[in-house]
Specification:
The complex is a heterodimer. By secondary structure, chain A is mostly beta strands. In chain A, the strands form 7 sheets. Chain A has a 4-stranded antiparallel β-sheet, with no helix packed on it. Chain A is globular, with a radius of gyration of 19 Å. Chain A has one domain: Methylamine Dehydrogenase, Chain H, CATH 2.130.10. Helices cover 0% and strands 55% of the residues of chain A. By secondary structure, chain B is α+β, with helices and mostly antiparallel strands. Chain B has a single domain, classed as GMP Synthetase, Chain A, domain 3 (2-Layer Sandwich), CATH 3.30.300.130. Chain B has 6 helices and 3 strands. In chain B, strands 1-2-3 form a 3-stranded mixed β-sheet. In chain B, strand 1 and strand 2 form a beta hairpin. The longest helix of chain B has 15 residues. Chain B is globular, with a radius of gyration of 15 Å. Chain B starts with 19 loop residues before the first helix and ends in a 7-residue tail after the last helix. Classes of the chains: A mainly beta, B alpha+beta.
């Protein structure tokens, strides 16, 4: 049935190097860099160049990190100058490149954020780079204010979830934070200017762990990936109100990752391309569209179409992360990280 | 029985290893593995609290295992409904199978329905790969698992 899909997922690059499972990836927002992290406690940085022959990736640096346990997640600051790592050793690492003339300085630990009691699972910078969020099996979400010289101040410890917090994700333009948990819920937080950060909404619907959250490029929607094998799409229906509007099925095991990019859809009202990956090793790509028709209400679900599907992105292994390249002109490029320790880069190309 | 190829206690990584399909010199075809072979892998795991194996305590049995070409489902029966060691037993089974089976297999582990008062919590924990990975980076927990697995190559 896949031959009927409008697009194919073609491999662009295969990046070995990690000695253990690769958990997570982050594309640098300003430089041609891709970062991967692994249970081998290292972070690998790949520089990519584009030519007529396609994209080429070179491993330009490997950061041993010094974390005592698995590096579970990585996140770049919006400036592209700082990399944050979340580790099972319960710390967040902050990494910056030593300045030198040829721009090839060593990556050094600029700061270590301590406070979580158990494994850190996710870390994320806000859109302006002034805030950092982290989460842990200790059930908390921490919000840190980013000061100059790699100085961080804790602005709040949010103890809303009843179980491990698996992921944190900031709205693409507003200071709204989403978290997903082993308690099957999603929580949304904002800052009360006269008080502290607080949870303004708890979203239920998933029937098992929420592994990942991805906001749509405009921030009107977000998607969540779950152990219940579904991806759900949530829509903003008021300033501080999101509701579940769509359930995407097809994965045969837990969905570990979801990413929402602009895509290269030409259809009218395209909301971009949504990619998902999981324990079945597959990647699925949907195009979503604004609802249309006479019956449309504020809570109408987007229209959706599966445009591409690849069953085995990492051989027999799980795919742990899928993430769209954020750079202009590369909206059809995504990367995956797998239990085989590989990072793979893919292009979504029209079926011929 | 071919126990040697199953004994891989020295694996440095729990997740990446040479599959035994490559090492045992058999033909290139996918090796069939049945219920009995899975049972042979886990029957000699020690209970964390008793000087007995999971087979002797009837925690595991062949009929509680199902296998398809790339999926293994193991059900086990805690000795008592409030057994605090159930997660550890399940973790030992998972580690044993991770180290022994070709990596094409996805493994799900559950307690027998109705056999444990925290059935949902135990099942969820045992099948959360991130929690399992983190548990195995805990030296004390890993040491306990290794003790449970100290006899598994003997059969």
């Amino acid at each position: 049935m896949d031959i009927d899909l409008s697009h194919q997922i073609q491999q662009v690059a295969e990046l070995p190097g990690h000695d253990d499972r690769a958990w997570h990836l982050a594309w640098n927002p300003t430089k041609f860099l891709l970062a991967s992290c692994s249970a081998d406690k290292s972070v690998r940085l790949y520089r990519y160049t584009s030519s007529d022959a396609g994209l080429k990736f070179d491993n330009i640096a490997t950061i041993p990190t010094g974390h005592m346990k698995t590096v579970r997640a990585v996140a770049w600051s919006p400036s592209g100058k700082t990399l944050a790592t979340a580790s099972f050793d319960s710390n967040i690492g902050i990494w910056e490149q030593e300045e030198n003339e040829d721009g090839a300085g060593e990556w050094e630990c600029a700061s270590t954020l301590e406070g979580h009691e158990t494994e850190c699972k996710s870390v994320a910078y806000s859109s302006t780079g002034t805030l950092l969020a982290s989460c842990s099996r200790d059930k908390t979400v921490w919000i840190w204010e980013v000061h100059p010289d790699a100085d961080f101040e804790c602005m709040g410890v949010l103890m809303e979830h009843t179980q491990d917090v698996k992921c944190v994700a900031w709205h693409p333009s507003e200071e709204i934070l989403a978290s997903g948990s082993y308690d099957d819920t999603i929580k949304l937080y904002i800052d009360d200017p006269s008080d502290d950060w607080y949870c303004f909404s708890t979203l239920t619907g998933h029937t098992s762990t929420v592994w990942a959250i991805a906001w749509s490029p405009t921030g009107d929607y977000f998607a969540s990936a779950s152990d219940d094998k579904t991806v759900r799409v949530w829509k903003r229906v008021a300033q501080h109100k999101w509701v579940g509007v769509l359930i995407l099925t097809g994965h045969e095991r837990a969905v570990y990752s979801v990413s929402w990019g602009k895509g290269m859809g030409t259809g009218k009202g395209s909301l971009g391309w949504l990619g998902s990956a999981g324990g079945d090793g597959s990647v699925r790509v949907w195009e979503l569209f604004e609802p249309e028709g006479a019956e449309v209400t504020v809570a109408s679900p987007p229209r959706h179409k599966l445009i591409a599907h690849l069953p085995s992105t990492h051989g027999v292994h799980d795919a742990n992360t899928v993430v769209w390249c954020p750079r202009e002109g590369y909206e059809d490029v995504l990367a995956t990280a797998g239990d085989d320790g590989f990072t793979r880069v893919w292009r979504i190309a029209p079926s011929t | 029985k071919a126990s040697g190829k199953y004994s891989d206690l020295s694996a440095q990584s729990l997740w990446l290893r040479d599959s035994y399909e490559e090492s045992d010199g058999e033909d290139d075809g996918i090796e069939e593995i049945d219920q009995e072979e899975i049972f042979d892998l886990i029957r000699a795991i020690y209970d964390p609290e008793h000087p007995n194996t999971l087979e002797e305590l009837r925690v595991v049995s062949a009929p509680q295992i199902s296998v398809t070409s790339n999926h293994v489902n193991v059900e086990f029966t805690p000795t008592v409904p409030h057994c605090g060691m159930s997660t550890l037993i399940g973790l030992s089974i998972r580690v044993r199978l991770l180290r022994s089976l070709p990596n094409r297999f996805k493994v799900d582990i559950y307690v027998k329905p109705g056999s444990h008062q925290s059935e949902h919590a135990v099942n969820k924990q045992l099948n959360d790969k991130e929690r399992v990975a983190a548990a195995l980076e805990n030296p004390v927990l890993l040491d306990t698992v290794e003790k449970c697995l100290s006899n598994v190559g003997a059969i």
